[in-house]
Amino acid sequence: MTTTLGDAGTTPTRATGPGLPQGIGKLTRGWTLFMAVTLAASLFGVYAFFYQQANGEIVTGMRDVGTMRGAPWGLYIAFLVYFVGVSFAGITIAALIRLFNLERLRPLARMAELLTVVSLVLGTLAILADLGQPVRGVINLFRYARPQSPFFGTFTLVIAGYLFASVVYLYLGSRRDAAIMAKESTRLQGLHRFVAAGYKDTAAERGRHETATFWLALAIVPMLVVAHSTLGFVFGLQIGRPGWFSALQAPAFVVLAGVSGIGLLIVLAAVVRRACGEQESLDEYVFSWLGRLLAVLTITYLYFVVTEVLTATYGGGGRENDVTDAMLSGRYAWIFWGSMALFGASLVGLLIQILTKRWSIGALVAIGLAVNLAAVGKRFLIVVPSQTDGMLLPYETGSYSPTWVEYGVVIGLIAMGAAAIGIFMKLIPIVELPEEADTRVT
Amino acid sequence: MSRKAISLTMLLVGIVLVIVSYFFLSAPWGADSVKNSNPRMQFAPALLVLGVIMAFSSAVVYELLPDRGDSTPEDSDE
Q: B52, B57, B71, B77: best mutation site toward chain A, by most A Cβ within 10 Å?
């Protein structure tokens, strides 16, 4: 799909077909059905959330540790960690593409940025769902929070700074395409003009854009490593919680974030390729690059898991062993071994494609989904077993089972994210429009 | 004031806000007593967030603000 603008002052021309490129503004039957399903699921999530607000957190499976023999951090926190993890890969890929001029991967940049923004918003909503008093929580965070705390780092660096930086990055990158779209007299012209904000694609504007995005990318890359490590420190610095207290938490968080994010990016790229007819720009090279990166990250993460489990089983103390036993052979074993099987099968699938140099986008999508399912399982295992089985005080072992309210909120969040991406795809090109020799917007 | 100067000012003010709110207005380093856990100024964390937002907003200003002091031939020929 190519879109060109005529010279300054002339009517724009389009190389292929009538209407805006990438199906923008076109409400197809498939898209409408997709939106109906995701919006229905989102409404269910909203209902579950307000049901919880009206009745209190007693309607969830979360309980205090110790006397109530439960876990105060459950599915919401597991998905907060998962969503923030997904955001990592998106903005990393986008920043690396700009920093190192990876031209052939440029079609991935915007969808990667979008994935980051959407997943960070979902992470924010997940943490709000976890709070009994969300409004009070937000106000007191800005009023009293202690910046030295990893919790504060998670909320400010991750959610405020990182989300804001990603929104700026996404917006500035979208202006040129919005300006091209605004040349067309469509129902979306007003929106495109607003987003373009006077962009004319002059050499000076391009230069400024290159400078701004380069420095933004340079600022974002170290910030996102700090942000994700901080989230790992929330768990890794808790001395009194066997299973969490570990120097490997922060790096393992970053690597698993990469695994889940790249996996989801593969899925999104495949959907965009098919839905927007972007077979040329999102070619085999793009998918093979993502596949190779995913293989390296999966191997690294499995190495971390082996190291962690080996250390805990070899030298762990009494309660440390309880957590490990619960994970390896107790009631969480099916999640642990299920996740490991998914990681293992995905790695085998990737290695076969790397060695044979034959890439299947369908297989990569299946692998992307599998590693995400495994990542959700691992996030759950990071959060929950240490609370139910890792007490240093002489309490009995606890338990945690999410209720329909928690499942409803999480399903609603995922659906909201999918709907947001679906809506974006109908408003702004999700794949950057190709560079043309003379595309000045007038 | 040129666009570049405004952007740089925003960036610097943002960074200064982050540093001041983190080191001088928030809760001090050290956890030896309960009194150390409160910020020296309420809403200091909000200032830190504001600083981060201002620093990144400078990129938007740099791209969007029309040129006044340092316009280039490419701009003017439009």
A: B52
